[in-house]
Amino acid sequence: MIEDIEAKIRKYRKNLVITGYGFIVIEFWALIKFVIRIGEDGGFKWVADAGGTDYSSMIRFYIFFFAFFIFITLFHFYIGLTSANYGTGKSRHLGFIPAALVYVGFTIYEFPELIRDIIEAYLKSEEMTTADNTAASILVELTILFILLDMIVSAILLMINKKKLVQKTVEN
Question: What phi and psi values does residue 95 have, to the nearest 5 degrees?
Answer without folding.
Answer: -65, -15
